[in-house]
């Protein structure tokens, strides 16, 4: 059975560049996924014109039916998944005037809660020796440092559970909607908090894999791709999408038998203290 890799939100931007790089380096089938079939197949055709052969999979991480259908497909066709890159994400523009509470709800829905749903459906089918990469952001670290000392202590602790983290993320949304997030110890960045949640979730899931499947040698990490010229970050960012793909692809292709990095936050291929 061939090996298989899946990249979420890969019809454009960093995800698209990750698929391009995996097509050149990964010894197996590479799936480009998009919530929209038209945008996804157009992206596949664009890589075909470069001589690359990714395969399209419809996947909207906000739609539990779509997530489960994709999981069942990979389970039935490949017996699981070797590489999962959770790249799909959203960000409101700085100039957007949508109320902060709405921005908090919408941003956390995709970047934290839906990515968590992806992990919870797909982690059980990640094969031994598999690699999971969560595309977080340096903003996760910046937002962490702007949280209250109490919140920082919980987000840095090694005993925070997924349930506690989910409760804290829900609390952020509720307090943001009530205009009370500053008093609650949260920073003024919904995107940053969503990515703090994703980096902490990655630490929790790596710890859990170590307890529950120690022999399977699965490595799971969060990373920042850098500041990348995409629709999200705009034309002034410093890296090209191909440069932004380097660290996620490095983590996806960590060699067989490697024991680290595991449960880390990685930037420019280096572990960054959390
Ligand atoms: N660009 C940067 O400087 C930067 C820095 C740090 C971290 N990041 C992170 O890197 C990742 C990729 O960002 P990017 O800059 O490439 O952004 P982008 O160009 O806006 O691309 C985002 C991708 O995610 C997809 N997506 C959004 N919601 C989705 C959903 N519910 N289901 C499936 N796909 C969904 C989008 O699909 P549609 O085309 O259908 O909208 C698009 O393919 C994000 O997680 C982002 O937070 C980016």
UniProtKB/TrEMBL annotation:
EC number: 1.1.1.184
Record's keyword annotation contains Oxidoreductase: yes
Top-level taxonomic group: Eukaryota
An example Gene Ontology molecular-function term: carbonyl reductase (NADPH) activity
PROSITE patterns for the chain: ADH_SHORT
Keywords, comma-separated and alphabetical: NADP, Oxidoreductase
Keyword Cell division: no
Family per record: Belongs to the short-chain dehydrogenases/reductases (SDR) family.
Name of this protein: carbonyl reductase (NADPH)
Protein's organism: Salmo trutta
